[in-house]
Amino acid sequence: MNSGPGGSGQVRADGSDAFHGKPTLAVVGATGAVGSVLRGLLSERENVWGEIRLIASARSAGTKLTLRGEQVEVLALTEEALDGADVVLLHVPDEVAAQWAPIAASKGAVVVDSSAAFRTDPDVPLVVPEINGHTARVRPRGVIANPDCVTLAMIVAVGALHSEWGLDELIMSSYQAVSGSGTEGVRVLREQLALVAGTELGTKPGDVRRAVSRTVPFPAPIALNVVPFAGELAADGWTSEEQRLRDETRKVLDLPRLRVVATCVRVPVITGHSLSVHARFESEVSVGAAHEILANAPGVVLCDDPAEGEFPTPADVVGTDPTWVGRVRRSPDDPRALEFFVCGDNLRKGAALNTVQIAEAVVSGH
C-alpha cells in the first residue's frame, strides 16, 4: 500500500495489507449516477476511511457534493489528485480506466475498477466478496476488477448454490434496466414514455417506433417494448453483454469450462436488473434445500411465496443492496436442474456497493 506522503498503509511480505491509521480513499467518477450512489453508501456504512477525495473530469472540478454530512469539493482527475491515496475506486468509461488505473497503481494505491478494461486480464482478480473475496489478495498489477452489473445481479445466488451442489450449466435471460446504459438511457426512456402515455400506440406494426423517432442509445423503442439486444454486436451474433456474462461467471466461480448461455434483453425499467436462470448441477437438487441455502447465503434475500404473490420485481428491490431470489422450481424433466428468478439494483450491488465491499476488505485485510 502507499507509504508515501499522505499514505497510511503498506504491504507485508506475504502480500496482505497493513494500515497505520485510517486509509485515504479516492473516488474517481464521483459525479456520475454510480458516484451518487457510492457517496450515499460511504456516508451510511461504517466509517473506515480517513480522507475521501471526490474526483471527476475537469468540467466538474470545483463542484461541491455532500459526503458523510459535509460538503466536499470535487477535484479534477490529475496525477496529483491521486498522490497519497491508498485505495482508488474507478467508476469511469473503459478507456479512462485503462489509462488511469496503471497510473494510480504506480503510485502505490490499490485500484478497484468497475469498467470492463481489466476483467479478462489473468493478472487482475475479478472479485465478488461473498464468493471469492480471497482472490483480491493477489493482484500483480495492483488492480482489482469489479464484475458487470448483470453478472452481479445473479452471481451471489448462483455461487451459493454452486458451493453446495457443483454447477454444471447455466442458461440465462436477462431483463436489464435502462440505467445500465447510463443517465442517457434513463432520459430516453422517460422521454419516450411521455410521448406514448395516454395514446393508443402499441396496437399496430411500427406505430411506437414512428412516434418516438429517436431510439439511441437503444436499437429500438424502449417504451411499450422490450429490446433483445444489449451491448455491442460481437462474434457469431452474440452481444458483448452476453459474452461478458459468460466470461465473468466462469472467472468468478473459477469454472473456466462451465457451459453458459445468455440472452440479454433491455426492458422499460429505470433501475434494477433481473434474470431468469436455469442452473444445472452435478448432483440432485430440491426446492427445500435450495430455499435453505439461499435464505442463509450472505447478500441474498429469499422472497418466494407465489401463492401469496411474493416474488422479487425490480420495482420492489430498487434502492436495496441484496440479490433477491424467487420463483424457485425444480425442473420437471431434470432432477439436477433448478429454475429461479433474481433481481438486484444495478447501481448498488451491481456497481457501487461491490466496489466499496472490495475496498473495505482490502483495508481490513480480509
Automatic annotation (TrEMBL):
Keywords: Amino-acid biosynthesis, Diaminopimelate biosynthesis, Lysine biosynthesis, Methionine biosynthesis, NADP, Oxidoreductase, Threonine biosynthesis. Signal peptide: none annotated. Residues 24-139 form the Semialdehyde dehydrogenase NAD-binding domain. InterPro entries: Asp_semialdehyde_DH_beta, NAD(P)-bd_dom_sf, Semialdehyde_DH_NAD-bd, Semialdhyde_DH_dimer_dom. GO terms for molecular function: aspartate-semialdehyde dehydrogenase activity; NAD binding; NADP binding; protein dimerization activity. Its EC number is 1.2.1.11. The keyword NADP applies. The active site is at 149 (acyl-thioester intermediate), 273 (proton acceptor). One of its GO terms (biological process) is isoleucine biosynthetic process. SUPFAM superfamilies: Glyceraldehyde-3-phosphate dehydrogenase-like, C-terminal domain, NAD(P)-binding Rossmann-fold domains. It catalyses: L-aspartate 4-semialdehyde + phosphate + NADP(+) = 4-phospho-L-aspartate + NADPH + H(+). It holds the Pfam family Semialdhyde_dh. Coiled coil: none annotated. NCBIfam families: asd_B, PRK14874.1. Belongs to the aspartate-semialdehyde dehydrogenase family. PANTHER family: ASPARTATE-SEMIALDEHYDE DEHYDROGENASE (PTHR46278:SF2), DEHYDROGENASE, PUTATIVE-RELATED (PTHR46278). Homodimer. This is Aspartate-semialdehyde dehydrogenase. It comes from Streptomyces armeniacus.
